[in-house]
Amino acid sequence: MLAKRIIPCLDIDNGRVVKGTNFIHLQDVGDPTAIAKEYNEQGADEIVFLDITASSDGRGTLLDVIERTASEVFLPVTVGGGIRTTEDIKEILRVGADKVSINSAAVKDETLVARAADMFGSQCIVVAIDVKRVPSRPDYNGVFPPDFGTDINDFHVVIHGGRQDTGINAVEWAKKVEKLGAGEILLTSMDTDGVKKGFDLEITKIIADVVSIPVIASGGCGCLEDFADVFNKTDASAALAASLFHFGIISVPQVKQFLKSKEIPVR
Predict the structure, then answer these.
(1) Cα separations (Å) of 162 from 71, 113, 130, 208?
(2) Which of 48, 87, 235, 255 is spaced 20 to 30 Å from 244 by Cα?
(3) What is the pLDDT of residue 140?
């Protein structure tokens, strides 16, 4: 088993790290560079910055944040949110990001993935896939039965913060973006995100099994055991979390020490 990565995610709004619920009731968590430096000292493997406003007004601010962080923190930095063109990607890489994460723009124009991979290299291109179970059974009554989701057609790609169902089969989309040149997939389950009852092991396993590129599991982590579960029960290469780390519920060293005690290799 290859060493697993532990990745904190920092939501950025107007140059500050924030955390809320469905992008509302945002709570200021602090300065992104200071927080990134703390995660660097804790032994995080990478940092993900997500521009949650994804607006032209915020783009300059975000570039400043990335440039400042890259000059002080020596961790790989991935940036996502509002990236629509190869020019956007070029600017973000220029100021010091190592990778970019694209989601809605890739769905709307899949050639963006291929063009970006060709211009900057697959190692720079992460495709974020937000996945949601879609009720397709006549007996659906608002509660997912135990066997729901075993048919891959029950998983759809959603965009715009989970508000728009594209109707695209998530597993087929994962296979397609790999062929287009994506170097990594950031997989978030909208069904488990924010619930803190564990990663969505089912869809994580399905997608990690059908692609050969690394898959980052995201959404739902609530305790140390959840990290072990996602690595023991799926082929995910990394696990991402936000609130648990930001509010000091669990630290990166605690996660790594726990995983080592379970004989799961970490960096």
Answers:
(1) 34, 21, 7, 21
(2) 235
(3) 46
